[in-house]
Every structure is written in C-alpha cells, then in structure tokens.
Write a structure and sequence with these properties.
mainly alpha, Rossmann fold, Serine Threonine Protein Phosphatase 5, Tetratricopeptide repeat, 20 helices, binds flavin-adenine dinucleotide, FAD, Cryptochr/Photolyase_FAD-bd, chromophore
Amino acid sequence: ITHLVWLRNDLRCLDNPALYFASLEANSAQEGVAVIVTPTPIQWAQHNESDAKNGLRAGLIRNLAKTLARLGIPLHILEANTFDQLPDTIAAFCLSNKIEHLWFNRDLPIHEQQRDQALCEQLQQHQINTHIQATDIIVPQDVLSQQGTPFKVFTPFFNRWITILAQQDMTPFPAPNSQAEALPEPNLDLTWEKPFREDLWPADHDTAKQKLWQFCHHKERHYQEGRDYPIEPATSTLSPYLALGALGPRQCLEAIFYTCSQEEKRWQDSIWLKELAWRDFYRQLMGHFPFLCRNQPFKPETNALIWRHNAEEFQAWCEGRTGFPIVDAAMRQLNQTGWMHNRLRMVTASFFSKLMFADWRKGEAYFMSKLIDGEFAANNGGWQWSASTGCDAAPYFRVFNPTRQSQTYDKNGDFIRRFVPELAKLDAKSIHSPKPEQRKQCHYPEPIIDYKPARLAAIAAFDELKRS
Ligand code: FAD
C-alpha cells in the first residue's frame, strides 16, 4: 500500500471525498489503499463523549471494516490515548508500511485542528491530501457576508447558504473502487467498546441510509407540523449517524432534492433542510470563533453572571427528579436512550440555565456525557441559545414555562406517561403539574423550583448585567 486514508468522524464509504479520491489515484497508479481509524479513549473522555456514542462508533467501525474488506481495502486500528500521541503513532505506521500519501477530510474543532497540524509537521516528507466537504454542507470559509465576515445571525446566514447551495454540484461521492480481491472479514479488537441501545440505533450504514430515504419519502412533508411534539415520530432521528459521519451531508441533500422533485416542491422551502443549515451555522461559528471551544460564552459580558451552584438540584435535574413531569420525562429519555427530542432539549436547557440559574457549561457537559449524537458545535450552540449567552440566542427574558410547554406539546401527557410511569394513571389535565396529594400517591417529588420567582430572578440578573 502507498495510500493511507485516515477516518475520524467520517466513518463511511459513500460520500467520503478523502476515501474516494485516494482510491481513484491509487487505481490509476496501480497502487494500494488502506484505511486507519485511531481511537483515543482518554481524549474522548476529556471531551465528555458518552458511552452510547462510543458504543455506536465501535459498531459502525466494525460495519465499515466489513464493507471495506469486500472491496479489498484493509482497515487497521491504531489506538492511542490522546490526540498528542497520534502523530507518532501514525508516523510509525507510515514508516513501517512505506506509505507515501496520507488522505483525510478536515475537521473543525480546535483540538482536532491542532492534532492534524502536528501530524502534518511530523510527516513533512509525505504527500498529505486533505479534503474539506465531508461534514459540513458548505464549508465555513465559503459562507461569508458581503464584507467577508462570518454571519452571527442565522437568517442572513441561511439566505447566503441556500444561494451557494443552489450553485454547487452536491452529488454524493461514490464508494471507493474495489482493490483486487476481497479480504477475509476482519476481527477487530475495540477495547473501549461500550454497550448501548442498538435496538434503537442499529450500527449499520445501510439501515441509516434507508432511514434517511424513508424519512424523506414519508415524513419530510409533515415535518413542520409534527416536529415539536415529542410523542410523534416526526423527526428523522438521524443525528447520531450524522455526528459520527455514518451519513454524509451530500447523501442527505440527494434524498431531499429527489423527494422534493417527486413532489414538485421547491427544495429551498424544505424546513428540514433548514435544520441541516442550523447544523452548518453552529459549525461555522465554532470554526470562526475558536474561543467557543474554550468554554467561553459568545457574549463575553455574560461571564459576569453569578450562577447558582446547588448540588442537589443538579442531581435531581440529571436524574429526572425535578418534580416537573415534562423535564423529568425528557431527562429520563436522555438517560435511557442517549437521545432527546429537540423541543425537550430546549425545555430542559432553559429550565437548567434560567430557572435553576445553573452554569450552562455544566448542563452542556452533562448532555455531552449522555448523548449518542453529542456534537460539540450543535450542543454548545443549543446550550448558549437556551442560556441567552450565545449569538442569535433566545432573548434573555424568554424563559420557557415547563408546565405550559408540556400542555402545548404533550397535550395528552402520553410522552410523560412513557418516561415517568409513576404518573401514568393521572389524567391529561393534572399530569402536567400534579397536585400535592397526587404527588404523594404517585411517589413523585415536589417541584425543586418555584417557577414565578425563579423566572423573575433570572430576568433581573440579566437586567442587572445590562445596566452595569
Ligand atoms: P431532525 O429534526 O430530523 O433534523 C435533522 C438534522 O439536522 C439533525 O439530525 C441534526 O444533525 C440537524 N439539526 C437539527 N436541529 C438542529 C439544531 N438546532 N442545531 C444543530 N443541528 C440541528 N444536535 C446534535 O446533533 N448534537 C448535539 O449534541 C445537540 N445538542 C443540543 C443541545 C441543545 C440544548 C439543543 C437545544 C439542541 C441540540 N441539538 C444537538 C440539536 C437538535 O436538538 C438535534 O439535532 C435533534 O434533536 C436531532 O434529532 P433529529 O435527528 O431527529 O433531527
């Protein structure tokens, strides 16, 4: 082999530019291609990555290794503890295998960029080919205002983004060419593998692709009406596959373009596509403002807020024992499945940062440690939006009323019943905010927060910030 493709958060064969171009070049020069994957369990722990995400990641690596073996491409695991160790590990592999060309798709977060930079310096004798469009639909440096500056507000970002999208060829890259004969099925040793809810999230690329096409064919047209109701299976639930790169952005576009053309709709009007644009929006913020990766709020003045630290409240929130049924149902959904509905991510994050007035960074870290779809940019963006510390965030005086959210988006209480079974017998009216005697009967806790004064206190703290 002379061409080595290094896969990271792009664990797929299809729509993978680095893999595709490496195989093209290798084929035309009659050279070989191999793939490496580099688990860094300690680094992942430092980034708070969840067991669920690592479980799915391991499964996807196994699945990918099988597919590549059928194409005659070997997949090697090079394990290291942290990103710092990777340049030496990869350089040693390149030396002993006489690798001349290294290929990878670029990553945006700051530690990942430092890792790649260090490797490039170490491998100066090698030809390194990097490709950009593997994770974002449009890369951050291409979506700029007329003044050449990054957008800090979503709507103008989206208008520019969609204009560029209409001008680009977004056809997915095909699978790599097969290399000679198929290889035997690999038996990988993934010491860091963790159990996860594989019944909900099959570690299989074909299933993920099918899920995408089924969503686009059957559900996308009802997305706008259904997407805010957690009991409805109205959203795609593709986020874990996008986060690990089992699905590529061009694959999503292909499906949405095709469905819209079948239904004679303008793809530009797809609300689902707009959600994918939010993903790019938060990613470009992370790329342009690296201080976001260093625990800093987008609005520096919010560093002066004095957050409350109450260990018991924090624990109750984590475990789904706040006494607010919708919040508890949501947190239990997260703990049990590794995923939480978007409406509920907003409700629980607003509850945490406004009503508990707890430091949003602690909530962000807890989410990351449980989410199967944990992605730094989207998670940080969502938390800073909810805490009103981010750019284009919720206005600080917008404090979600959990009971009203519950009455609106879980009208009959069915979502609550699913995850808070002790309340299952309550009627649709009382389930959102049970009376004290009902709580006692159901062994369900009293609310840990008094909504009205907590809301006013949060607004007053932000008002004070404005004055000073
Ligand atoms: P769909 O509604 O089907 O949307 C399609 C895809 O678009 C999603 O899979 C996701 O990749 C992207 N997307 C949708 N909404 C958003 C959004 N608001 N911001 C960024 N991308 C979006 N999403 C993550 O992928 N990882 C996270 O770690 C994450 N943390 C969040 C934390 C908070 C506090 C909030 C409010 C939101 C967070 N989100 C995160 C965004 C959103 O909740 C999830 O992407 C969505 O719920 C995933 O479900 P789905 O795949 O069914 O989404």
